[in-house]
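Record now logged for everyone:
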Amino acid sequence: MPTAVLRRTHRSRTGDLTVVGHVRAPLDARRAVVLVHGVGSSARAYGRLAAHLVEHGEVHAVDLPGFGASPHLSRDVTIPEHAAAVAAYVREHVLDAGMPAPVVVGHSMGAQVAGQLLADHPDAASAGVLVGPTAEPGTRTIPRQAARLAVDAVGEPPRTIGVLLVDALVRCRIPYYLAQLRHVVDHRLEDVLPRTTAPVVVVRGARDPVAPVPWVELLAARATLGEHRTVRGRHHSMDADPAGVAQAVLDVWRATDREPG
């Protein structure tokens, strides 16, 4: 029998920043996972992965401030501010609901946000799964990152690129997108992860030009409790191999003795 799933939408406001959570929850959910999208994207990027995770616990796919269904902003937002806003969302809609701290999954820029959250707000996450993290040393310019994303786009499914283009060009608007790119290239994830205390799994698609093997290995080594693994696909590996990425989430649940169900 298919798992009965409830769908709802949550909002959390921190100052002028709003996080919108698109929630899928089985009736007997006792654990949660929070999915954080990349720059220019939205919670819609996690449709396939959410479907693989919902039978194991509550799935919160969030729209970061200024992206997706979150209100447009008249100012820029830093990576630490995004992390603080997601942490506030977790406290309000996961911890206050009586659940343990969730696994936080971040893709691309979302991996930077998730890493920052793990370091700055350790109460808000039991573990982190960082998928396709961006901007290793030597590539921290917008042209270099744009070139890598262009190479990746050639091999991604048309649906994946279509959703991303609509989210980037229409939903978050170009000026905000470009401002956020500056934070992507300025952020130093390798300097943040040594401050984490929870398990961290760094994941890359086998053909991801944005997150090369040496970068993923470095991040895993810099985390206090880090490991890395490779799944199928390119930069959006949660689309190409949602089962593989879901397995990483389930594995850290087990490792922290928080396996659902």
DSSP finds ten helices and eight strands in the chain.
